[in-house]
Amino acid sequence: MSTMKVLDKDYSHWVCARCGQPLQPATVELEYLDSLFNVELPACAACGLVLIPEDLATGKMADVESLLEDK
Amino acid sequence: MEQAELRRWEARCTQEEPPRCRAACPLHVDVKEFCTRMAEEKYDQAWATLCRTMPLPRVLARICDGPCRRACIRGQAGGSIELPALEHVCAQRATRQPRILPAPSRGKKAAVLGCDLAGLAAAWDMTRKGIAVTIYTDTPPADALDGLHIPPAAADSIDSMLQQELDTLRRLGAEIQEHTEITSGLAAGCLEECGAVFITPRAYDRLMAGLPEPDPLTLGTATHGVFAAPPLPCSVTEGASPVAAAAQGRRAATSVARLHEGASLVAGREREGVFESTLFTSLEKVQPAPPVPVPAGGYDATQARNEAARCLRCECMECVRHCIFLQEYGSYPKQYARRIYNNESIVMGTRQANTMINSCMQCGLCATLCPNGFDMGALCAEARQSMVRRGKMPPSAHDFALRDMEFANGEHCTLARHAPDTQASGWVFFPGCQLAASDPDSIPRTWEWLRRHLPPSCGTAQNQGVGLMLRCCGAPAQWSGRNELTAGTVAALKQDWENLGSPVIIAACPSCAVMLRSNLPQADVTGLWEIMDSLTDSRPDILQPATADGHPAVVLHDPCGTREDAPMRQAVRSLLERYGIAVHEPELTAETTECCGFGGLAAEANAALGKKITEGRALRLGAPPAQGKTAEAAPSGTDLQADAVTYCAMCRDRLAAHGKRTAHLLDILLPAQADAPAIAAAPLPSAQEEPVAGTLPADCCAQGFSAAARHAPSLSARHENRARLREYLLTSCWDEAPAASGPQAALEIRYTAQAAARMEERRILDADVRKVLLHSRDNRWLQDTRSPQGHRLASLRPVVVTYWVEFTRHDENAFTVHNVWSHRMHVRTVNGRTPS
């Protein structure tokens, strides 16, 4: 499965409080209603804590959720 | 939905039925379209409309006798439309003749015996069906109109018009054999050669004398392939109806074509001639207007335009006109039923109608307005149940409402007890979870009032008490189409009720009353308002209603749950009258009242539409219009300036939040005492100086009932209010110690205005935020190193929704929340590993 790139901005100024590591682009597997997607998202390289920014959650992600709900 | 069921639904909606004029025209001319074009002075388009259905249009448009006028509904409001005069003007003024083409030949033939209008019309239609037709006549074709009524205005031109149409007919391929004697030998020969013969009215007496009458539906005679039309009745002064004559020819042509195709001669022809349309058209708002008199020489352009403009353009749309939901999807119930049927039939692909199905308020207004009782709510309810059964209900549509219900029916909010110091209940007060959410303070005082005034004679010695039940009636489960959840909710409610000895239920909320009556039929359910009305009938002094500045008057909004509950609506009016409060009714009131937008969980599944619905209703209740918009016209004799009053807590809060000052009836009848302890939760603590909540414009709070200006509580406060109410009652009535609060309660959280607004919009509760912040304390947050204030981000997925909170921390337990959002998609792995 190819990895979708949905974010352009740099999120390396966000740092994981537990690991002290700046977030780096990672391949994140997202699931909704039995559908899986690989998306490139900023995450802590050590513990895998992912950042899902507001624009993404209320924009593209919400659109896809609604699309899948109507499938 | 089965197809037969779809057909049953479709049959109830008459919007696609033709207007009465078209049904009354034997040729089914599209009168509505014609008048629309004529009113716009678009003669060429109007003429094209006539040419689509009329044979020999240059002739018929000039001599049409207008049978539509007998059916025209305008006749009940001034006089029928003068269609013949309009057709004549159109024929005179049109400059473009639509091209009339013969159909490709099918190698079939027919003979028409006799040359009259029926014969010419039959030949006209046959050429257009690809049949080679020959007219045999012993009279000159120029005499074809003899015996028909010719209006004086057409007398001069009709001969040349007939010549033109005879030329058209020849061009279309019809042959006219003149000077041919019409005999039975000719008929037999034609039948032998062509297989189909039409005996016109003019030839009828010669060829059909002594034979049985032809079948009126097909014009078929005893001889296979021979069709015949008897002469039409003819008044001495008027002559026969030209349109009826042309329709005879059309009927014959249809029979001949079906015969040649080997199709059934009779199937589906019930509506070929004149029929009764079932289209309903309301004349309620139609101003009477008399017809423009027809001068001897016919209308001029202005007269024609004015006369055509009188056409009512008949349609039903009764339900759509009064329902923002039905308007939203651009069509009408018959089409919607098809969309819902198609939506269900989709195996792969996107179900386009899901949102529509979930946006209906199920309020019953359409069924009340529809002459055939089409109930879009029932249709959508069935569709939702089917979606749930098939696992195709979008999970997000009702998620928040169902969790809200779960909370209202959970351990923190429910209560079912006899009154303090009693062991039995003859009655139980059921305020409903939305009244508890909206105004928890009203519940102890109402309960206390009931306990004091419900007469002992109402019960036996053992069950004179008035118990209390705090829980949700199950409406959200039912509205969301979840039958099992509804059944489970009702079962728990029933258990509580039986434990109290199955007392009479006094419901404060109309929707609860509806739900309880249908789902708990063994219970005796009455409205709080009927009880109040009957108790104060002989003792009005037991209520001291709130006073309003100036002359007390209210605009009454009946909740949609009372549509079929006339006794409850009547009790409310009687109470207001008893206390001298003048009632103004909006245009849609009582059994035709409008829903506030919460019904059917419409506003939950479609927040934008819900807002539109509530704003619309608020405007029609006299809310000040938005800038640049005009106020709704009030029904005559009604003043919509006064505060609105209603008796459903959800209606109250939604209307108040959308610009109309609205009081709950309890605010007025049983106002809060100044010294009563406050139960309701305060607005969310704000990071700014001003309180966060605030929806009513300050300048409209100057007069009327002060409670009408009460803010609608936030979603978080609605939750908390229910729990606080239970806690208050346990401590004050039964002396029970409050439950120990969890660690989340210890967090001191302030919200920015933006965060508070987003929480409402995104359905995120203070309780959700607390869970996220508590979870974040173990170093589970992200730090924005660029933020001078040190913004942090934390998230948590308690069940299926992931909540994000952007915050700053002041100390271990003190936070300011700057923003919140959520999503339903779930992180499974990061770089192939499960996140720790």
From TrEMBL, chain A:
Q: Which domain of life is it from?
A: Bacteria
InterPro entries named in the record: DUF7479, DVU_1557-like
Pfam families tied to this protein = DUF7479 (PF24292)
Domain DUF7479 intervals:
13-71
Q: What is this protein called?
A: DUF7479 domain-containing protein
